[in-house]
C-alpha cells in the first residue's frame, strides 16, 4: 500500500467523523454519536491488550473509570477555580490518570499472561469497584459524582454547552487517539507485543523481556482507556461506580470480540455496532440484552475472528475476482437464515409479550391465538430446513472461490 | 464474645462448604479442559430457579433431586455443542465463550422468571432449631446444608480415588491421548465431567436458594468468589479448593461479625486522627465494611507471591 492510499483512509475516517452530525442532526443521533466516540476509543484501547498483546483482561473498566473520575474532579476544580484551563484538555487528564493506574497495577500484573493475568485483572476490577463504594469522598458512593463542563475559559468562543460541540471535541480526540493507537502498532514495541502474544519463549530468546513488552502495551492501553473515560465525563458530566465495575469491563470485551480481535478496525466496528444496538434496539424491545448475549455467543462459535475477520475472509476471493460467484449462494443461505432468526425473535417476543397484541415488523400478532404460534413455528422450521439444505452449496462455492487450481499456481 | 465467635465459625463453615460445592466442579472442569468456566455460578443460579419452579408443583425434595439433573444435562449439552466447537479456536475463545454464556444465562433467567426475587422456601420439615446456644438458634436447614456438602465431598473423594470411573477420569485429565489409545471415549468423559460439575453447581443452588435468596443477581454475587477460591486453592487441586473454600467462608464470616476498624488499629499505636481530614474515609474503615473485598485482596496477594496457589502444581 502506498503512502497516498494509507493517507486517504485516514482522511476518509476524519471526514466521516466530522460529517456525521451534518447528516443526522437530531438530539438522539448526536447522543448516539457521542456514545460511539467514547466506545471506539475504549474498545481500541482494549484491543491493544487482548488483540495485540494477548492479555485477556476482565478489569479494563478500572482505567476507564479512574480516568473518568479524575476528569469529573478536574471539572469540579474548574468550577471552584482552583485551576484554570480549557476543558478540551480534560480527556488528557483522564488519560494521564489511567496511565498512572496502569503503571502501578501493570508493575505486578504483567509478569504473566494467560490465566494468571486474567485472574489478577478480575481481582483488581472487583477490588476497585468494591472500594469505590467505601471511599465516598472520592467516588461519591452509589450516586457517583457530577460536574459541569461549561466552566473554565472558552475554546475560541465555544463553551461546550451543546452536545454537538462536545461531539466535535470528542471526534477530535477519537481521531488523535486512533492515529496514535495505529502508530503504536507500527512501532517496535507494538510489533514485539504481537511477538510476545504469539510466542513469549521465542521473544525472550531474541533478547526481549516479555514482561517489559507486556508492561508497555498495558500502560499504553491504560492511557487510552483513561482518555475514553475523560470523554465519558465530558459527555455525561457525571460518573458512577457502574463505570468501573465488571459490567463495563464485560461490555468492552464484547465490543472488541464481536468486532474482531487482532484487526485494527475490528473494535471500531464492534463499538459502532454495539452502541447502535444499545441505543436503537432498546427503544423497540426490553430483551435487547438477551439478543446481545445470543449474538455474542454465535460470534464466538461461528466467527471466531469477529465481523472484521469475516470481512477479511473474503480477501482471497476478492483478489481473484471470484466474489461475484459467492453472491447467489450467500443469498440462498442468507435469506432462509434471516427468516429463521426473525421468526425466532418474533416467537421470543411473543412469549414475553404481556399485552393483548404484539407489534413487530409492521405486523400485529395476537399471542392468545393458537394460529399465530403455529404459523410462526412452521415458518421457523421451514426456514431452518432451507438453511440446512442450501449450506452444502455455499460450502462448495466458498471452496471453489478460495481454492487455487494447480494450473494457476 | 464466645457466642459471636462460635456462630461466626458455624456460618463460615456453612458458607465455605457451599462454596466448595461450586469450587469442586469448577476445579474438575479446569483440570480437564484448562479453562476456567465463567458460567459456573450461572449454573448454580439455574439450579436454584429450576428447583423453585419444581418445588411449586412437587415440593422441595423432588426439586432437590430433579433440578441438579436438569442443570447437569444442560451443562453436558452446552459442552457438546458449544464448548467443543469453540475449543478449536483456542483457550481465549473458550474463556470468552463461557463469559458470554454467563451473560446469556443471566438474561435468560430474567426472561423466563422475571427480575423480581422468588419466594423459594426451605421445606417445613427442616423448619426448627437444631440446637440453641447462648440463646441463639441454629436452624436445622443449615445443618442439612452442612450434611449435604460434607456428603458430596466424601462421595466425590470416594468416586475419584476408589472407583474405576474415577481412575479413568483422573487418567484422562493428565494423559488424554493415552487413555484414548486404551479405548476409552475421552470426549464423552469430558462431557460427563462437565455435566457432573454443572450438576454439582446446580445442587449448590438448590440448597442455597432458600437461604441466600433466589434472584437474578445471585450468580454475580458468588461467581467471582468461586473464582478466587479456585485460584487461591491452586488451579486443578481439589484439596486446595476445599481448604480455600473454608478459608474464604470463615474469613468473610469473621470479618462481618467483628466490630474492629482502622480506629482501633490506630488507637493501639496511640495515633489520633482528625475527622475532617480528606482521607477520613480511610481512617474510619471498619472490618465489616471491607469484608466483601477481602477475598479479592487475598487473591491478588496470592497471585503475586505464590501464583500456583496453596496446593497447586508448579507451572512448567
Descriptive overview:
The complex is a heterodimer of chains A (409) and B (316). By secondary structure, chain A is mostly helical. Chain A has two domains: 18-292, ABC transporter involved in vitamin B12 uptake, BtuC; 315-408. Helices cover 74% and strands 2% of the residues of chain A. A two-stranded antiparallel ribbon of chain A has the order 1-2. A two-stranded antiparallel ribbon of chain A has the order 3-4. In chain A, a hairpin with a 2-residue loop joins strand 3 (358-360) and strand 4 (363-365). The mean pLDDT of chain A is 84. Chain B has a two-stranded antiparallel ribbon with strand order 1-2. Chain B has helices at residues 2-33, 40-58, 60-86, 91-113, 140-162, 164-174, 176-181, 186-212, 218-233, 238-257, 262-268, 280-283, 287-290, 294-305, and strands spanning 129-133, 136-139. Chain B has a domain at 2-216. Chain B starts with a helix and ends in an 11-residue tail after the last helix. The mean pLDDT of chain B is 83. Chain B is an all-alpha fold and 316 residues long.
Total strand segments of chain B: 2
Overall spatial form of chain B: globular
- How many helical elements of chain A? 17
Computed Rg of chain A:
24 Å
CATH architecture of the largest domain in chain A: Orthogonal Bundle
Poorly predicted ranges of chain B: none
Helix amount of chain B, in percent? over 70%
- Oligomeric state as shown: heterodimer
What composes the largest sheet of chain B?
2 strands, antiparallel
* Overall pLDDT confidence of chain A: 84
Radius of gyration of chain B: 21 Å
- How much of the sequence of chain A is in beta strands? under 5%
Q: Give the helix proportion of chain A (percent range).
A: over 70%
Q: Give me the count of strands of chain A.
A: 4
Class by alpha and beta content of chain A:
mainly alpha
| SSE arrangement of chain B, N to C | HHHHEEHHHHHHHHHH
Main sheet of chain A: which strands, in order across? 1-2
